[in-house]
Structure to design on (136 residues):
């Protein structure tokens, strides 16, 4: 008996919430295919960045997306050893170019490690989920 009452109450709640659900939302556009030139964030995030002479100059630590949903900048970690003493700098997304080597995406930036080290450093604030100028 209790089981029947519980099921009836649950079904009533579900039907009420279904009736209360907004129906005036426009349908989202959903693609039926992946764009041919698309790459995944995995091809960029936590990947090494090299200068044109094939020297490692940093690692992509984060990707910043603007309000239109486009990747606008990369946070590149430079220097340090095993994360200690590393500095995070902001790099415009268009400054890092991807190429494929040995079936893997390879990131290249036309700068030096020293130039990145001289740039303004930033730190991530978890409570605001923002990158802010480094206070050190």
């Amino acid at each position: 008996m209790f089981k029947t009452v519980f099921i009836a109450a649950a079904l009533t709640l579900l039907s009420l919430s279904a009736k209360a659900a907004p129906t005036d939302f426009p349908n989202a556009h959903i693609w039926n295919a992946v764009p041919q030139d698309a790459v995944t964030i995995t091809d960029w995030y936590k990947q090494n960045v090299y200068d044109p002479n094939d020297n490692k100059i940093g690692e992509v630590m984060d990707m910043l997306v603007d309000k239109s949903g486009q990747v606008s900048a990369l946070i590149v970690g430079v220097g340090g050893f095993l994360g200690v003493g590393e500095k995070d700098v902001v790099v415009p997304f268009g400054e890092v170019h991807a190429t494929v080597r040995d079936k893997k995406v390879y990131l290249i930036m036309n700068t030096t490690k020293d130039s990145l080290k001289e740039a303004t450093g930033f730190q991530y604030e978890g409570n605001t989920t923002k990158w802010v100028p480094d206070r050190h």
Notes: The first strand starts at residue 48 and ends at 50.
